Amino acid sequence: MTTVSSTSSSTAASTGSSSLIASGSGTGIDYSALIEASVQKRLSRADRIDTTITANEARIAAYEDMQSLLLEVNTSLDGLRNRSVSTGAGSNLFEERTAYLSGGGSTAAGDVLSVTAADGAETGTYSIVVEQLATRHKIGAATTASQSAALGQSGTLTLGVAGGTAVSIDVEAGDSLTDIRDAINARKSTSGVTASIVKVTDDQYQLILTANDTGKAITLDDSGGGLLTGLGLTDADGGYANELVAARNAVVTVDGVRVERSSNTIADAVDGLTFDLYAALPGQTIGVEIGTDLASIKSAITGFVDAYNAFRAFAQSHQTLGSSGTASSDATLFADSLLRQVTKTVYDALNAKVTTDNGGTLSLASLGITFASDNTLKVDETALNAALTGDIDAVRTLLGLEMTSSSTDLKLLRYDRSLGRTDFTLDITVAEDGTLSGASVDGDDTLFRVSGNRIIGNDGTAFAGLVLVYTGQTGSVDVGFSQGLADRLYTTLNGIAAKDSGDIARIVSQLDADNTEMTRRSDDIKTKAEDYRTRLTAYYARLEAKAEAANLLLQQLKYKESSDD
Prior knowledge:
Keywords: Bacterial flagellum, Cell projection, Cilium, Coiled coil, Flagellum, Secreted. It is found in: Secreted; Bacterial flagellum. InterPro entries: Flagellin_hook_IN_motif, FliD, FliD_C, FliD_N. The chain is built from 11 helices and 29 strands. The radius of gyration is 44 Å and the shape is extended. The strands form 9 sheets. The protein has a 5-stranded antiparallel β-sheet with strand order 3-17-5-13-14. The chain has 565 residues and is an alpha+beta fold. The N terminus is likely disordered.
């Protein structure tokens, strides 16, 4: 507020950003109030802009929350879409396999072997008998009284394993057992043999040679120099003097077929299966069943229900009315068109039905998933278990993408969008040299282009995003796609919630741009208002100074007049 001084008749008016002091000899007007009112009138425009910015920031935060929740829904759906990585998914749970072991008698099957199944491995059962484990060849030298004393042996030792690369180790008379061990180990990565020293008793030490790999016999040679015999590694006939463990291959029978490998890990006996052998159990059959990993699929389905219900709770919180019948203060997206669109889209997708090849229909209810009274989802676990164990192919059809083709020569390579057409006949032309020369649908050859053996849907057509591989001859192929609930919903939500390109990202980007521009305008208004405050303060200061001068002149005239009297 303006402060008026009554103690001096010559104090000049002073300026400031928020106050103006007037002397008692001036006007006595509250200039600060006048200035503040004028400045605030100009600042009111900035206040209105700042209010809009704050509202936009709240909307941005709400949109980002919605985006995060929808992406969680899509994360839960991804593996249920029956797509490979090349067709746009991070994983395909329907192709993931697990192995179930049984049998083994008194020995637990898991203590005998484990079986790992690659994605897409053929389902089925196998009978396995682990007849023999692969072992590492191990031989010992003669014992010596010291590991550090010179052995008095000299010569060149050639050392390796069967089928490997042998190395030459020079031994001198002054070398100890430790020296020989260290010399061997310096070349072990090449020779495939590792040396160690075992303390047998307080005055007996033994050099041990062990093959690095199972099933490979150690080879020794000293060109007849007597070094091997002197060390006690070979006998007089050139045989191993102390063979501690013989080199053996692993032997298993798979459905009665004998399989022998040098390793206890066998990855090439059955396509897609890896056997890790832990113990031999001759005569005892281990049953192995390779099946779809139902536990992972169930976990993904229940995870989807939880993710959807979290989104549903968010949507309801932004549709809440306060006690006055108006939108709640927390309902930032009340009546928001995008939220309404997403809510309806998700609800419609979850209520859709999928027709099977035999004319039947499938829905979420087929999995024991239904809507509660508040439109959240609930799961009947018993019904879900029955669906998964009873007909996993029906679950795949209900949820995922499936392609049918009248030719086994046509395969799906990539499919990263929703097709405009799901059933069509593809007319394919192959040149005399076997290369693809064209592909058309209904006589239109502008829908696809060919590259090598790939048939690629052109952008702007109903087939954009579709890439097929064809290895056959000229002909027509009937193609059909069935898009299940999970794949359809994922594709739709991805268009809405994708981090950089979805509808929400575009709206948030526009709001950010709007806020940037409004912040610039608000700051400009505030800067100009403060400039105006400075000019107005200076103006009133000049008025006050003039008023003081006039008042001083008036007092002087009155004084002169009284003096003249």
